[in-house]
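Justification of resources, computational component.

The compute hours requested in this renewal are based largely on the per-chain cost of generating structure records like the one below. Each record pairs the submitted sequence with a full structure-token output. That output is archived, and it is also reused by downstream analysis tasks.
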Amino acid sequence: MTYCLLLLSVVAVTAAVPVPRVLTRAKWPEREPVVALWVWQCLVATVLLCCLTALALGAAAVFGTVRAQLFAPAPPAVTAAYDLSAVSPWTTVLTVLLASGAAWTTAMLGRELVEARRRRFRAREHLRDRAPDLPAGLPEGRGPLLVLEEEYPDAWWMPGSPPQLIVTTGALQRLTDHQLDAVLTHERGHARARHDWLLHLSTALATGFPRVPLFAHFCEQTHRLVELSADDTASRRCGHLTTALALIELNQHRGVLSCASSHRLLGERVDRLLEPPPRLDRRHRALTTAAAALVPFVPLLITFAPGLTALP
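The structure output for this chain reads:
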């Protein structure tokens, strides 16, 4: 059992510290943001599975009640293979730390979801009060759409059931029909991919564990990659140039092409649309996705290895 906990700790530390730093320096995520999001999710799942399985093994070693429930259907040879009778002090300390971390993670996720729901409810009520009637002649078939009377051009989506697309009258006046279609397609891409759940998860983990490199980079990269992914959705339907021009028109008053750090992502998105990077071929994309999907099985394999070897 000691070897299992040690291996799980090594895998968790490796996935949480050096791997995210290497991934943030890579160039291919810019070409394949959807695959990159999948890789980041698999890394987070690996760390969480390592902690969860280590917590289960540690609790089974420390507490006899947990051991009896967890290994009740297992043959005696499997229970003996884990050597749960010999409990070292560091196993007890690790179990307590992991239990505290699990409780803290649950609390952070719960707080993030409650606060997001509260903000969304207030925003919906505020927007309904300010929204005028839809202008005559607005094309149909774009899903739930709320037009907000506002001088500045803007458009965004609000998660919910159903998701709400919001566009200002300034955007309707400034954008052409094709540019407006690109903007709404971008926002629908967010809604269809349920990017709000990824943003909530990454924000909660980064808030709860700010010193863990994986969670800090996961939050930062998620906010960046979901925008690149939605840009690709819009550009496939409306074209790269149309999407880039729509992005410039929407953000020109904010200084989209400035060098300020707060606008750096907008400038990167415009440059990327005007000069699309070469994409990975299908084989490379499939191999990367499959390899990332197999990584979360490593902690499960480590956890179940003693039991599998003990089976006749």
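The longest strand covers residues 164-168. DSSP finds 15 helices and three strands in the chain.
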